[in-house]
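Objective 1b of the project was to move from sequence-level analysis to a structural picture of ligand recognition. The entry below was assembled by the postdoctoral researcher (A.K.) and checked by the PI before modelling. It contains the amino acid sequence of the target and the SMILES of the bound compound, NAP.
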Amino acid sequence: MLGTGSVGRTIGSKLVELGHEVRMGSRSADNEHAAEWVASTGEGASQGTFADAAAFGELLFNCTAGTGSLEALGAAGEENLNGKVLVDVSNPLDFSRGRPPTLSVCNDDSLGEQIQRAFPEAKVVKALQTVNAAVMVSPASLPGEHNIFICGNDEGAKAEVERLLQSFGWPAERILDLGDISSARATEMYLPLWLRLMGAVGSPNFNIQVVR
Ligand SMILES: NC(=O)c1ccc[n+]([C@@H]2O[C@H](COP(=O)([O-])OP(=O)(O)OC[C@H]3O[C@@H](n4cnc5c(N)ncnc54)[C@H](OP(=O)(O)O)[C@@H]3O)[C@@H](O)[C@H]2O)c1
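Corresponding predicted holo structure:
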């Protein structure tokens, strides 16, 4: 688990609850958010640097701030990413000019693609980042047949992530595969709408449903 924010901690806790062992990585080996998470999660949870976590994991999650993700993955070490499924939950939100944030990359490129280009041997699967952390691991907390999206170049990696999402409670028919990693442009460019929807509905706990 690369990232000590609410997404890393929420997904990390769900994974431990499901019986996985999770090492949470940070820029520092003794990050206080990670330490609190380890203490409250108990057996199966540990912490370290980004490199420690990446070396430990069979499957990796990028849950770092989008503007720091390439730096975080660089610190994790290419050798620790090669050949592994890397679930990219980040959004390229740039808060440097205030709120609402802008996208640091968009239109003809995406953070998902930048990560895949920077680490060509990693199997990047963009997933989950169109919903709040609580909804990611508890889709049944919202009514309706709402959807989640996955994108990536490696079919086997996407199948593995689909199984993982099903273990989080996402029914198979609600997981929409949008295609290769360039589809991350679409799911990342959804964020400006997501932010406005949050303001309009007054809560981050919502999702969208594709009807046809
Ligand atoms: N919050 C949500 O519900 C939600 C929903 C969908 C998607 N997302 C996306 O998920 C990601 C994580 O969100 P979050 O709210 O949990 O946490 P966050 O505050 O966006 O990110 C925290 C993590 O980013 C790392 N980080 C920040 N700047 C860095 C840099 N320059 N170099 C290396 N690492 C850096 C931090 O490292 P340290 O541990 O060293 O501090 C920390 O581990 C973001 O990309 C966000 O857009 C969030």
